[in-house]
């Protein structure tokens, strides 16, 4: 049967369609890929080549000068350290909160399930807004502390709904009933059965929360004043967008800083360095990433 | 006999005592809820979290109807009714801000909504699995780039002196363009860089739905001599209709909520006339100028309009199709 379909020849119009389709997708591929390749190549080129517009596709006069400047910059290193702290602690708290919330709400027999779910879901559509939230953080004494980066973002309702949908679809009621007959409490069941069965959704959550923590700058910008607490993204904002590169932070290359080329080079290198941690794990987690989107799509 | 009697008595109770029955049911539910105390214990922390960080700030919204002063506090400040809203809606500069927000939102929707659908359909038609995987892998990747890096990237590639885009333009004999300095180019730069970053990611949902299209239907259409375009139109598109409608509802609902993060970073004094949107305006009045009441009022106006939009689109979708988000 399968071969018989292939025997039906593609018409001329269909052949043209297929060729056109490949050409369009190849074009899309180039458009998405080219800026990325360009930035990476520029970051490895010499300052003169960057400023002279000689870089087109491959590095020109390859050098690691830009990266040297990045790793000699104290601010960037402190930013890296802080971002790692926020990402690791934040994601850990996110996972605990999300699963604690998602599991009870995934049980159909929970009394008041719809009301409680509604309390959570409403916050996705409506919020107090910027100023009231800021005042709350101020009142709680979280301003200018590391906690301001972790506690206000302790859980995302959207991710919680994804986790709840996953649990609903994967853990059969019969399993729960069997455990109940064996005298297993809901909390015991959660620790011994639900968590081990939730590895795929935990991977999805780690990815989503981890990337969100790594990439955010807004809460740091409004809640933090102390430079020593700044996450990488805020430092990057100063360098990339506000052009504030502290010259004293670059002792060895200070003389060369006069050349605009090195500043540009530093920018390209910084873009690459800041994106590497996320893009490195991306190929390994792509499977989970797609899975997460699909679970989310099941229940809009 | 005993069994049937009991059955009859139970039935009579249902007919006779409705209030009693409701009470009994309530008591039964309460008893059931008590046995589930462990579930509620687990929910305690997340509930405290949303109450403190989402619902308490909602209480702060009363500031929008008061003249907040630090010495009097939120509750002690004087009521002023709709003064701040009238002030916002009657000043020409705020109308510009509303217009900019709407323009960016509608542009994003019109340009950004169909492209992931087209991308998914194009990818679905690719026979070569390796090529398909490469395109997917590459187009998802920019989604992970942070906003700061994304805007930094835009600035580098559109730079007047060293940016690659202007280098290419000069190659064709054009004058370099100051993309970020031209207010008229700001919406396009914002929208198309957003499409570059998220089109691949947004296509995933449609791709997943397209993977579920029945093979038999496709084969039957092939046997009947339907061309590829016809199969896309009559089989693939109807298959992803629910996803299209749901995402359309969300996208229309978020027209007014143009994100703060990217616009703020792309702003400069030269493009401000087109780049000031409600979110950045709220931030500047509220946290920079410390005019808490006015800022809260503008923010509230924005969320209420957005919420009304979402509800109306959802209502329309429910009326004209069978899909809606609630």
Automatic annotation (TrEMBL), chain A:
It comes from the Bacteria. Coiled coil: none annotated. The chain crosses the membrane at residues 16-37, 84-103, 115-135, 147-167, 201-224, 265-285. GO terms for cellular component: plasma membrane. Residues 113-293 form the ABC transmembrane type-1 domain. It is found in: Cell membrane. The keyword Transport applies. GO terms for biological process: transmembrane transport. InterPro entries: MetI-like, MetI-like_sf. Keywords: Cell membrane, Membrane, Transmembrane, Transmembrane helix, Transport. The keyword Transferase does not apply. It is a multi-pass membrane protein. This is Carbohydrate ABC transporter permease.
From TrEMBL, chain B:
It is found in: Cell membrane. Residues 98-313 form the ABC transmembrane type-1 domain. SUPFAM superfamilies: MetI-like. Its main location: membrane. The keyword Transmembrane helix applies. Coiled coil: none annotated. One of its GO terms (cellular component) is plasma membrane. Keywords: Cell membrane, Membrane, Transmembrane, Transmembrane helix, Transport. Belongs to the binding-protein-dependent transport system permease family. This is Sugar ABC transporter permease. It comes from Zhenhengia yiwuensis.
């Amino acid at each position: 049967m399968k071969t018989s379909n292939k025997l039906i020849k593609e018409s001329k119009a269909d052949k043209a369609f297929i060729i056109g389709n490949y050409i369009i997708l190849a074009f899309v591929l180039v458009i998405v890929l080219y800026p990325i390749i360009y930035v990476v190549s520029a970051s490895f080129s010499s300052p003169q080549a960057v400023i002279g517009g000689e870089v087109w596709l491959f590095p020109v006069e390859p050098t690691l000068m830009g990266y040297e400047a990045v790793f000699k910059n104290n601010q960037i290193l402190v930013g890296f350290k802080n971002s790692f702290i926020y990402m690791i602690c934040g994601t850990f708290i996110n996972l605990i909160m999300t699963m604690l919330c998602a599991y009870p709400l995934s049980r159909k027999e929970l009394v008041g399930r719809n009301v409680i779910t509604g309390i959570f879901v409403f916050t996705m559509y409506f919020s107090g807004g910027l100023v009231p939230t800021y005042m709350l953080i101020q009142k709680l004494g979280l301003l200018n502390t590391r906690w301001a980066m972790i506690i206000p973002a302790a859980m995302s309702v959207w991710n919680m709904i994804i986790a709840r949908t996953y649990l609903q679809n994967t853990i059969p009621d019969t399993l729960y009933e069997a455990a109940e007959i064996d005298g297993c409490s809901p909390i015991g069941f959660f620790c011994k059965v639900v968590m081990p069965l939730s590895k795929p959704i935990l991977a999805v959550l780690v990815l989503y929360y981890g990337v969100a923590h790594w990439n955010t700058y807004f809460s740091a910008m409004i809640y933090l004043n102390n430079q020593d607490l700044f996450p990488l993204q805020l430092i990057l904002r100063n360098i990339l967008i506000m052009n504030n590169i502290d010259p004293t932070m670059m002792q060895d290359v200070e003389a060369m800083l006069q050349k605009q080329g090195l500043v540009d080079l530093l920018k390209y290198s910084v873009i690459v360095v800041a994106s590497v941690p996320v893009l490195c794990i991306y190929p390994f987690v792509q499977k989970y990433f797609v899975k997460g989107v699909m679970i989310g799509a099941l229940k809009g | 006999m005993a069994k049937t009697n009991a059955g009859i008595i139970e039935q009579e109770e249902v007919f006779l005592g409705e209030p009693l029955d409701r009470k009994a049911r309530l008591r039964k539910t309460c008893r059931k809820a008590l046995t589930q105390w462990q579930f509620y214990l687990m929910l305690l922390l997340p509930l405290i979290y949303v109450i403190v960080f989402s619902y308490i700030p909602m209480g702060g919204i009363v500031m929008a109807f008061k003249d907040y002063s630090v010495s009097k506090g939120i509750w002690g400040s004087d009521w002023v009714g709709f003064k701040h809203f009238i002030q916002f809606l009657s000043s020409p500069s705020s109308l510009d801000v509303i217009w900019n927000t709407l323009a960016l939102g509608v542009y994003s929707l019109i340009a950004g909504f169909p492209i992931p659908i087209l991308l998914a359909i194009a990818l679905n038609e690719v026979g070569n699995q390796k090529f398909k995987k490469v395109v997917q892998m590459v187009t998802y990747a920019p989604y992970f780039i942070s906003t700061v890096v994304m805007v930094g990237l835009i600035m580098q590639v559109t730079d007047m002196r060293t940016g690659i885009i202007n280098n290419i333009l000069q190659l064709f004999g054009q004058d370099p363009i100051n993309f970020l300095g031209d207010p008229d180019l700001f919406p396009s730069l914002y929208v198309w860089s957003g499409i570059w970053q998220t089109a691949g990611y947004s296509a995933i949902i449609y791709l997943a739905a397209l993977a579920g299209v029945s093979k038999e239907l496709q084969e039957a259409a092939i046997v009947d001599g339907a061309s590829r375009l016809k199969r896309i139109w009559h089989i693939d598109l109807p298959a992803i209709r629910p996803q299209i409608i749901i995402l359309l509802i969300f996208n229309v609902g978020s027209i007014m909520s143009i994100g703060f993060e990217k616009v703020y970073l792309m702003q400069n004094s030269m493009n401000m006339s087109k780049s000031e949107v409600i979110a950045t305006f709220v931030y500047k009045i509220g946290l920079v100028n410390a005019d808490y009441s006015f800022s809260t009022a503008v923010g509230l106006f924005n969320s209420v309009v957005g919420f009304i939009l979402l509800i109306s689109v959802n209502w329309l979708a429910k009326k004209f199709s069978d899909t809606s988000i609630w």
